[in-house]
Amino acid sequence: MRLPPRPRDQRDRARHRRPARAHGIAARGAHLRAGARREAGRRVSRGRDALRSILDWRTYAQALRLAHFSSYSFVRQVRLLQRGEGVSMAPNVSFRNAERITIGAGTHIGEFSLLWAGNSRGRIDIGEKVLFAPHVMVTASNYGIERGPVPIMDQPKVEDDVVIGAGAWLGANVVVLAGVTIGEGAVVAAGAVVTKDVPAFAIAGGVPARVIGERPSGGDERA
Fold first, then answer.
1. Residues 121-154: pLDDT tens digits?
2. Is residue 110 situated within a structural domain?
3. Lesser CB count within 10 Å: N end or C end of the chain?
4. What is a single Pfam family found in this protein's UniProt entry (predicted)?
5. pTM, 2 dp
6. Range of the domain at 166
């Protein structure tokens, strides 16, 4: 049994659909090729920028500046330290006026810590087996803050010794200011700002730091 032929208008629509479908496929192909060319262009541009950066003299000048700063803040300063046997410290620890810094045997100074002694007389004396967590700052020098025509950065510095007793533990991001004594075996909680003395074996925390407890007894405190 033969089907009746389609009306002429349906045959015309079918003939028009076939070229339209082909045109859509060609358009998608052209779009994909254009995207691939753009991605290849971006890769070439990134490679060109990287090569330009390698060949640029300013890249090497910056590297030399960083090397000089690293030498100043660590290598040269470490040579000036007075330190006992077995002291360990991360390579990114910074020191200022290290000739006035003493570190006892077995002490560890954590990553990115900063020990800043005074320019003329403020000393930092750290006992044996003291533990510094990362990002601890100890300074024996502060700027003056008197009101008047002289900006803070130009005022004479106020210097005073900092003493940290044997076996103490300073948590991450602790700040110890000039004139403070932290007693033997004391613990300073992370983030504290120490502006006053901390007794031996006390636990201090807060901003400004205050005594919030005492270490439980038991064991050799110097172990």
1. 999 999 999 999 999 999 999 998 889 899 999 9
2. yes
3. N
4. Hexapep
5. 0.66
6. 81-214
